[in-house]
Structures are given as C-alpha cells and as structure tokens.
Specification:
Layout lengths: L2 H28 L1 H10 E8 L6 E2 L5 E13 L1 H4 L3 H12 L5 H9 L5 E4 L4 H9 L7 E11 L7 H4 L2 E2 L3 H6 L9 E2 L2 H5 L1 H4 L4 E8 L4 E8 L7 E3 L3 H14 L4 E6 L6 E7 L4 H6 L3 H9 L8 H4 L9 H10 L9 E3 L2 E4 L2 E4 L7 E3 L1 H7 L2 H11 L1 H10 L20 H7 L6 H7 L13 H10 L2 E3 L4 E6 L4 E4 L4 E4 L4 H16 L16 E7 L19 E8 L6 E7 L5 H18 L8
Parallel strand pairs: 2-10
Antiparallel strand pairs: 1-8, 2-3, 3-4, 3-5, 6-7, 8-9, 10-18, 11-12, 11-23, 13-16, 14-15, 17-20, 18-19, 21-22, 22-23
Helix pairs in contact: 11-23, 15-17, 15-18, 16-22, 17-20
Length: about 600
Amino acid sequence: MNTDRIKKIIYLFIIVFIILEARIFYLQVIKGNYYRKISEKNHIRIMITNPPRGKIYDRNGILLAYDEPLFQIYTYPYLIKKRFESIKKDLERILQIDIPEKVEKKIKNGYANKVIIQKKLTQIQVKKFIDNWQFFEGIFLEVQPRRVYTEYARYMPHLLGYVGFPSEKELKENPDLTADTLIGKSGVEKIFDKYLRGDYGAKAVMVDAKGRIVKTLWEKQPKRGSDIYLTVDARVQKIIYDAFKESGQKSGAVIIVDPKTYDIISLLSFPIYDIQKFSDGLSKKEWKNLLKNKYKPLFNKALHGIYPPGSIFKITVALAALQEGVIAPYQKIYSGPQFQIGKWVYRNWDPKGCGKIDVIQALEMSCDTYFYQVGLDLGSEKISFYAKLFGLGEKLNSEIEQKKGRIPDPQWKIAKIGEPWYLGDTVNYSIGQGFLAITPFDSTKILVPVLNGGYVLKPKLLKAYFDMEKRRFVKVETQQIRKIYIKRFFYNVIKKGLYQVVYGERGTAKLLSLAPVKNGGKTGTAQVFRHKKRKEKIEKWYLQNHAWFVDFVPYKKPRYVISVFVEHGIGGSKTAVPITKSILEKMYSEGILNESR
C-alpha cells in the first residue's frame, strides 16, 4: 500500500471522529437541557398482560378450575411520590380505598418498581375510577385473571395445587417468565403449567411525567392456555372425602387407581384446606391456624408422607418367596404364637398363633410368625430386590411423586446407620416394619402389577389436553416401564389369599364381605411406638399405630385399586377397613361400581 493512500485513510478517520465528537457535544451540551426535559416528561413502560390459564376438567368433563377477570390498580412510585397525599385522599374519597401501611411504605421508598395498590376492585369502583380518571394520574387500571375453583375442586386441594407469582429463583431458572406471570406453584397447576399457562401479552407505552399514556410503541397479544382433562373422577373424589370425614378419623390418605392404565382416579390427603381461600389470600390468623394444626392440613400425606407399611408388605414378600421357590403354593408351615432367634422373641399379633398353614391362609390371617420364617429363608437382599422391582422406593413418575420410599438392605444400613444387618432386621422387614417406609401412593404399586399381569406402569394424572396451535385434543397414552417375570399362577395364588382376607373364616377384613361388590385386599397395622406389654393401651394420638388397607374391586375383573391409610388409626381392621367399605357402598349406590355380587 503506497504512502498517499495511507494518509488518505488516516485523514478520513480523523474527519469521522471530529463529526462524532461534534454530534455528542451538540446532543449533550447544546441540546442537553432539551432532551433531559423530554426524558423527564416521557418514560417508556413495558406493561404485561397475563393470559387466562387453561381450564381444568376431570375425566368426565366436570369443570374444576377456570379464570375470571379481576380488576386491580397499580402505580410506579416515581410517578406519584410528589402528589401522594393528594392521591391518597382522592382514593379514599372517591373509591373508598384505604392504602395499607405496607403499600404506602413501598410507594414512599420505591422508584421504578410496580406497586399494586388494590386488588379485587368492584364494578362500582372500576366505573368510578374511569369516570374520575383526572384525579388518578400515574395510577393504572389492569385486568388480572383470578383462579376460580369449583365446588368439586374443593375436595382435592392437594391434588390441584394453586397458582402464584414466580420467586426470584424461578425467574432465574426460566427466562420466559416475568415477575407478573402467574404460574402453577404446586399440584396439577404446577405439573401441567406448560399447558395451562399460555403466553403472556405485553405492550410498550410512552407515558408523560404524570403517568398518562402518550403513545403505544408496540404490542403483543396474550395467548390463552390449553384446557386439560385429568384422569381424576371428581365424583369418586367427593366419595372418598365424605367416607373419611364420616369415619371420624383425623388424618390420613386415600388413593384410587386403575390397575390396567395406572390412571389416578382419586387422591385425597386428609384433612383438607380451603383451596379458594388459599388461592385468594389468607389472613395472618388463618395462616397461623393452618400451620399450628397438628393434623397438618397443608401437608400432602398421599405423596409426601413416609410411613412403615406394616402387613400390606406381606403381599410382596409372599410373591417373592413363591417365585424364588422358598415356598410352594400349598406347602404348609407351622406358625405358632411366637418365633425365637437366640434370646430374641418375635410375637404373632394373635397370641393363639396360626397352626400349620400355607401362603393363602397366611395372607388371610396376616400371620406374622409365618412371614418371619419365610422372610429369613428368602433373605433381606431378595426382599429388597422384589420391592424395588415393583416400584417401591422409585419415582415411577417424577412429576407426580415428590418423595421416594425407603427400601433398606444391608448396604443401606451400613451407609446410613453404620451398623451391620442382623437377622432380627430381616424378621421385622418381612412384616413391613423396621427400616422400611413408603408413601401411601407407593402402596398402590404393591397391587397394580399383581392385577395387570406383571406390568409396572407410569402413574398418570393427565388424560388429554387441547392443543391450541393445532386446535385438537391430544390423548395421553399409558407408558410401560418394565415387565415383571413372575409366573401368572403365583399372581392368582396371591389374589386367592387376598380374597380370603375378606371372605375367609379367619380373614382380617371380614367386614368387607358385606360390601355390595366382590373384592379382595390386605390389612396392615404399622407400629409407631414399641409397646411394653401386649395389648397395652396408648392414649396419645401420635403414639397410636398406623392403619392400612389395600383393596381391589371387582374381584374377577379389577377396575380399581383402593389404598386407605389412617395416620395413627390403631389398626387396619379397626379403621381402614370400615372406610373402604363406606367407599365401596357409595361408589355402588352412585352407579360407578355396577357389578353385582
């Protein structure tokens, strides 16, 4: 490159630099005051509009949740700071709105952040606001969707969950959210938020120093969320709620599923809370009362509670022993009133003992001493293997299941407790006690593969959703996780044993033989407090045993698995079985169970 050309390039750069400097000087110095006044008088605001969330229906089209428009007024503190006292008086005089102390503090101390002055304006207040807009410069009226839960929804607050504004953590994790976006915070509202939420609308407006909109720069319309149809039957949900409440029991859970599809038909955590009041906002007193309630109405016991299962776990042990050849279906084993290992004595729940019995009779009587012997022959490793094979201690659907059960083995005990595994641990394990703990929802996993031929399925809450883009319904199919290769004959042996629990001479759930539909099941009583004496009476509720019953109905062609868990319910036969009977009678009387005996 020659010297003349280099000089020309340098001169060109110098000229461009002088022009830019002159322009900056002109804008900042000569026209500085002018543009400063413009910036003070005009501000660009991004206004977010929440879309209506999709509706939630049950499997039969019963409406559970929808949105209705809610009017609220808000401001940006810098717009009204200087005129705050005047505006405060006008709000009180015209709209009868007293600004709370907390909101007043935000306005006086804030600058650019949005501050909501009043939610849930009445139609009269909205009209007065519009008619007297000149008194409210710098205050804006907007429509915010309000989530409304129907009467049927009131029976499933833990299942449906609630909506709210995102936390700082949620905003960081999801760049598509804004601070004004309503999202699902728990339950179905959270699990299926991607369908329900829709796409928020936004517009950029220029406002003057008094907060009046001067110009709309651009606008994006909100898109409504998709409607979803759950697998839940709202009628059955009300039935299980009524049955539990009428029982007089204070705390527990009921889950009903379809063993062929693993559709969740109903899921109750008891006691419940008022889902609408919770969504709209509780007073401090109401919130404190919920937190202080010893029966924990806010805690989802069905999915988050971890409890020893007691004798319902004998189903898994019996199947494992049959498949491993530890026992034969009609092989009889003497099972007395107690079983001894060294100096340690393990008693049968019935002091009379069971005599010489096979596995069907052992299930019928829930014979502890039979399962002590079978469990020792099977071994803790095999018990754990089959429990995990059925899905216990595993989240078969991580969106729905938030907690995993605890399925112990010798390696677990060394790692967690620092002690070796003893024979006594296996003895306790074989009857669903010791270190074993599951969620009430886990209990359905014990029966589902037994009834559908050995298939471990993914639990399902969503039946279908409406695709807003393609304008069509999309059905959600059942997903198979794995096949358990256990002889079909052994499943039938177990089913016969569970039939005898209800209809056998020494069955522990004979009350259910009076139910209008043939069924089979297994009782469970899980010890919470170690009794010094047999039949020792425990007065304190929180020291009582937990009560379980898992049922399937109808017996020949099972359509439902029903799990009833009563926290500190004393015994499965005493409290869980009567609740199950009430559920079956109510389902039958309403035509949901229509098979006769």
